[in-house]
Amino acid sequence: MKKAIELVWERAKANLQNIVLPEGGDPRTIKAAAKITAEKLARVTVIGQPDTVAALAKKEGVSTAGWEVVDPRTSPLTDEFAYTYVEMRKGKQELIPDEAREIIGEEMHFGSMMVRKGLCDGFVSGAAHATADVCRAVFRVIGISADVKTASSFILMQLPTDEFGVNGGLIYADPGTVINPNAVELADIAVATSRVCWALLGVRPKIAMISCSTKGSAKDPIIDKVIQATALAKARLAELKIEADIDGEMQADAALIPAICASKAKGSAIEGRANVLVFPDLNAGNTCYKLTERLAHANAFGPVFMGLKKPASDLSRGCSADDIVSIAAIVACQAIGQKTKT
């Protein structure tokens, strides 16, 4: 049986998207661009200086054929992008054109603007930049979706067996962005994961709102938040006409094991077969993904942003070229999903 990440690759290959990799000065980016192109996962645009990119490609022994290199210093797009940036920041940050040109000349902002303008379909970066730098560019330039008011993130966990999730694939949210979401924000995160599940895995989302309590087994304001978020997310999913099953509050064993779900949460729409786990806060989400990665020998693909107008990711600075390739496939599937409203 194919792994979930292999299904993601297949979906990306079936409908090629243009993915921008802004970190053209990093050898991992260059190797990833060559592999993405060779595997026909996406069309690739690398942001960087052509001579630097060419030198890195030669050093790494990879071809630059089939992908584009754009240099903000010489691109005819830079002035247009700078003008757009001045206009979009009015009322928030007053800028003169030269200041905007300097900001846009930075690779994170230039890559984000390519996505905003529709020249690229998704953004994959963070190998050589801090999360704060990536978030600043992506959130300001690409912007937050009108449907979901909270920008958040997810990780696709690929387990070594197919016992849980979809072919061993589980979506965890939020492992890296919203530290302590309130009930409304947590509901936004859940709604965003429903779209991710459809886009990546092509199956009906079964979203478990994770808690230390299952259906009233404990009482505390931190549990009340999850209960409220579940109700809000159910209503929002119905309003947006997104097909999904959601239940909570629910402990992880009830979310993942049918027999335990039948005992603790009889009649649950999840039926102990969750493919999406929404955690109550960043402490839980981040800790659980790292425990799963290490104890279960799982692969963690992400974090990838949700709730944006167009898809983007924030790579770990410890990522490999192969990690960038798989994240590019995930972001491509998100772009396909947004275009087809899945």
Walkthrough of the structure:
It is a single chain. By secondary structure, the protein is an alpha/beta fold. The chain has 2 domains: 4-143 and 308-340, Rossmann fold (3-Layer(aba) Sandwich); 152-295, Rossmann fold (3-Layer(aba) Sandwich). Helix content is 47%, strand content 15%. It has 13 helices and 11 strands. The strands form 2 sheets. The protein has a 6-stranded mixed β-sheet with strand order 8-7-9-6-5-10, sandwiched between helices. The chain has a 5-stranded parallel β-sheet with strand order 3-2-1-4-11, with helices on both faces. Helix 1 (4-14) crosses helix 13 (321-340) and helix 8 (183-201) crosses helix 9 (221-240). It is globular and about 65 Å long.
Strand content: 15-25%
CA radius of gyration: 20 Å
**Beta strand count:** 11
Number of domains: 2
* Distance from first to last alpha carbon: 24 Å
Biggest sheet, spatial arrangement of strands = 8-7-9-6-5-10
H/E topology pattern: HEHEHEHHHEHEEHEHEHHEHEEH
What's the CATH class label of the largest domain? Answer: Alpha Beta
What structural class is derived from the secondary structure elements?
alpha/beta
Please name the CATH topology of the largest domain: Rossmann fold
* Second rung of CATH, namely the architecture of the largest domain: 3-Layer(aba) Sandwich
What coarse outline follows from CA principal-axis ratios? globular
Number of helices: 13
Percent in helix: 40-55%
Which regions are unreliable across 5 or more consecutive residues at pLDDT < 50?
A: none
The major pleated sheet works out as: 6 strands, mixed
